[in-house]
Amino acid sequence: MPESNKIIVGLDIGTTKICVIVGQLAENNKLNILGIGKASSQGGVSRGMVANISTVVNAINAAVREAEKQSQVKINSVYVGIAGHHIKSLQHRGTLTRRNGDEEISQIELNNLESEMANLQLSPGLEILHVLPQEYKIDGEDGIRDPVGRIGVRVECNYHIITGETSRARTIGRAVNNSALEVADLIVEPVASAAAVLSQAEMEAGVALVDIGGGTTDICIFQNGYISHTAIIPIGGDRITRDLQEAFGILKEQAEEVKVKYGSCFPTEQMRNEVVVIPGLPGRQSKEISVYAISQVIRARMEDIIQKVDFEIQMSGIAHKLHGGIVLTGGGSGMKDVSQLFSFFTGLDVHTGRPGQHLGRGMVDEVRNPMYATAIGLVMTGVEVELKTGSQYRPNEKLVPLEEQQAMPKQEAVVEEVMEDTQNQKENKKSPGWSTPYRGISLFKNFLNDWLADDQDDFQN
């Protein structure tokens, strides 16, 4: 049976679509894509946030079934993306004073220092989603990336801390749990997209990742290899569709088709002579719409998005250090001439990023598209979390078909029962929000699953 610490599943709950991707870490540290599942959000998500739980549950179930069918893996646990304008970030410095400065600094000490950041006092209703270390300072020497193995008394670190509303996290958790799935972790979506699209060289040079989704535009800015600024703008490609719908009095589906087939961010004089014919409602005449007018509507909204993105870039304080320019991804990055418009207004180099450099085998061609950047990044970040928590991977292990998994003895139910009891104990002590930052699947669960898997192998032998 595929183990939970080997098969990683990402769940992207987007404004326009729900996407599930099943991945497996290969021996060359590439990600093999085993299955993909997609379903329309059908209005259950608004501006990146779950608005209708039952609608989202139906969409999740549909996407999961498709992903399970393709991958032949039973999905139990998922790494889920979280977005929305409630996502904020702040900087904080942590300090560790060591009793024995002659001993080498250990990773355990750094982990303890990072864990202390989770105890920061926040405004009511907020919780910490990520604690991301930037650079360290040891006894006055700054600019240190990896302090492990060094000697010193005073260790300081600048942390980039990302927060979100507890109520939003609970709503996502409820939707996922109602789909009979476990939330392995909540990952802020721009962090996931960056993991899938950006190279280490780009992050070192300084780069702004801009993920234009259906309901939000996510921004993640890097300098010297680490995140220095994150922001989420509650406007995306779906707003452009609505603008077209309202401007020309057409249906939403027609507006989306017009945007994709004929839309451009740069109106030209040549477009004045081009016309798109839109079928009318039953018993009514069709409409003729100028391609020039279509592009004018698109450009107006895209300029609005660009201005807000540029504001966040300026707020980061390192706009002049973004030698890697801007990398666009997400479904909205496929808009014609969008890169040129971004470059025109920001003065930075702009290109489109695709989640391809970290992929190995499997359904690679299908997911090498900017619209899958977040979902791929959720799988990659899930791999990182599990490696960080000590899980051991056994790449390329043979997968067991779903029908065989369902026919196996109910040992797996023991794991679920123990985990449910453990979770109930935790919920009695604290709120059901995910207040522990950047956590992975518990070590106890990994141990118990490994033990049961070995017992299952003995049983079959």
Write down the Rg: 24 Å
Q: CATH topology of the largest domain, what is it called?
A: Nucleotidyltransferase, domain 5
Rounded average pLDDT: 84
Question: What structural class do you assign from the helix and strand content?
Answer: alpha/beta
Helical amount = 25-40%
Query: Major sheet: size, sense and barrel closure?
Result: 6 strands, mixed
Number of domain units? 3
Label the overall shape.
globular
Number of helices: 14
> Which strand order do you get reading across the main beta sheet?
11-6-1-2-3-19
Uncertain spans, ≥5 residues at pLDDT below 50?
1-5, 392-402, 404-461
Report the end-to-end length measured between terminal Cα atoms.
Answer: 14 Å
Task: Give the total of beta strands.
Answer: 19
Highest-level CATH class of the largest domain: Alpha Beta
Provide the CATH architecture of the largest domain: 2-Layer Sandwich
How would you name the CATH homologous superfamily of the largest domain? ATPase, nucleotide binding domain
Which percent range describes the beta-strand content? Answer: 25-35%
